[in-house]
Amino acid sequence: MSVFKDTGHLFRFAGLFVLAFLIFLVVRHYVVPKSFGQYGHYRGAAIGEIAARPVKFAGHETCEMCHSDVAEKKKIGKHAQVNCEACHGALASHADDPATVTPVLPDTAVLCARCHTASAAKPKGFPQVDPASHYQGTPCKTCHQPHSPGIDAGGAK
Amino acid sequence: MNISRRQLMILLPAAAVAWESVMAGTPEDAPNYKMTGHWWGMLIDIDKCIGCGNCVRACQTENDVPDGYFRTWVERYHRTDWPMTGSGPITTNPLIAPEVISPDGGKEGFPVATDESGKYFFVPKLCNHCADSPCTQVCPVGATFISPDGVVLVDQTYCLGCAYCVQACPYGCRYIHPKKEVADKCTLCYHRITKGLTTACCEACPTGARKLVDLKNPNDPIHAFLKTHSVQVLKPQMATGAKLFYNDLDGSVR
Amino acid sequence: MSGVEGYMYPNEITLYWSVLIVLYPYITGLVAGAFILASLERVFRVDAVKPTYRLALLTALAFLLVAPLPLVLHLGHPFRSPEMYFTPHSTSAMAMFGYVYMWYLMAVLVFEIWLDYRCEIVLLSQSCKGLLRLVYRVMTLGSTNISPRSLAIDDRVGWIVTLIGIPSAFLLHGYVGFIFGSIKANPWWSSPLMPVVFIFSAMVSGVAGVMLLYMAISKLRKQIIDMRCVDTIAMYLFYIFIIDFSLEMLDLVHRIYEADESFRSLDFMVHTQLYFSQIVIQIGLGTILPLVLLFLTQVVKLPEIVRKRIYAISGSLALIGIFAMRWNVVIGGQLFSKSFLGYTTYKMSLVTREGLLVAIFLTLLPLVFLWVLIKLLPPWPEKSAHAQAAGG
What we know:
heterotrimer, B: alpha+beta, three-stranded antiparallel beta sheet, globular, C: two-stranded antiparallel sheet, 15 helices, disordered C terminus
């Protein structure tokens, strides 16, 4: 065929492209993860993987399952909407194995100050004091019970 | 703990069973969780935030966030009083140039403020989980995406670490994880919300300033809240479809 | 926090795009610019620049081969980069890199070079010995047909390839401009002018680069520099430079005039952090000075030796200025906070994967590749005959 006579080299070059493209298609079939495109342009299985991460905070509903007495007391006090782990830290490990994992009680001297140290930046209605001068720096626990901190609720437990 | 032995014998197994279902696997497998039934967001009530930093610490604990990087952080704004003398350059306009600090992201709270003039407030920030997110738009390989239930996530086994998404986020909520070398950011505690828990930051917030919101749930209090309050999103001019709603957000917030 | 002024969002303090990301657009810019110079002769029949035709193509190829390296070294997971080929995200400008690169490399540059050199390749594959013989034989793809008709067909096809190559070159470098220009989150980058500015500054750098290489290599080979060629290149360089400068000034004036919410912050940044790299290097030494010098050569009849000096100086300044432009875009875009309330600093490291030494190495590597290519595919007839006679 006369058209191939002096253009054979061009077809060879094109042939390289075709070959490379075919190899690419084959490799792509094996390499692209199976769940890709399941919900959109991403690996669908990633959603499940992210959702399967371990939980560190148990959530107050889990705490209240066993510690219902504390929950009752807290419900009627000023700290009603303060969740257990906001002060006690992440305790899913304790909920998982209550007998073995015993949480450390937080140090109220540090803990209370974090929220209640007076600052011009805090909302005016929010209860705030200068910890150093409030009752000459007496520890908070002396008069305030953390689960129901209203002063008429009595001293520390 | 004031519980009798008998109560314990009943409660513990029940708790254990409930706990198991909480710890169980994928959302597709979870008996009650259908992705299409949810559209997640968050409500931040500026009036309630006291800048305690509990949320920042809780997030770091829950999600192993590396030091120096933040999935959530708190900013303290001081919109100073208007200058009383002279007309001054635009730089003295407190709405344009507020004083903002975020020491270590607010993780250990903030230094005590003593200046009684002007207005102070705290602004917690995190990923806005934009419905029209510019970060997922630019990912070259599809490693970051919005899930069918409205949470913007990163597939860290697929991410190249090119940082294009970090550049594209208008809110500065993304970073490249120093050890994993992939993009990282707030996942709205996806592993918690798909199990009926709330996010770690909302759980830890002592004043209820942060609330997880499910816009597709007719019983979610957000619907009533939106009827009676004015909410804003950050940088509305970017039209990102942000789902992080702020109540009482000041005009000086960037 | 060291190096931070004012307020930055906590995650913004580190710069994520380093000097390697400055280098990438610089390198692809040189590729695109060199190719445009080659196309001046091939498509637009500017015969005067023919002596640089083959050199321009080889320069483009040498730089294109190095181009992916800064990107790959920057990635957190370089071995995942094939994902860009397997699952490119159609909404991402960056995703087209893999395909545009492969297209430009194989279907434009390599194809055109192969077509232009095919005759010599076949002859060399027959006259050389040893390993070189094998290399040339592979390059012939098994076809030894160098009949006049086949060469005429090659010429015709090569013309079409160059024609397609021009928009391809614009795409290769323009998409990089779009990568920055389409980011609404960053007001220093976001602009419809960005791809256009990138393309024109690329042409400046590529044309200046080839001009300098031609002059330098001719000197090394002790060959006379074809002044008609160099004068013509300098003229085109001058005109392209004017367009580039006008576009950048348009962007600047527009910003100053509209003075949107980002302006104050960006203005401050340009006057402090970016003062040296933007005002002094990019605008002053890198644009205005070479423009003035080139303007002189266009309006005043100067002796050859003076013109050669001016071209060498302007060309070098242009290359430095265009690098500064890339620096100011990439690094500058990350120095200010998106809150418009603060600034950070770029701490360029020395010996890390994304450090200065790697950047210098990657800038010099294309010259090594070019040297190899020139040895393998001599751009000039005398050298080719010499190679033939000496048997490789």
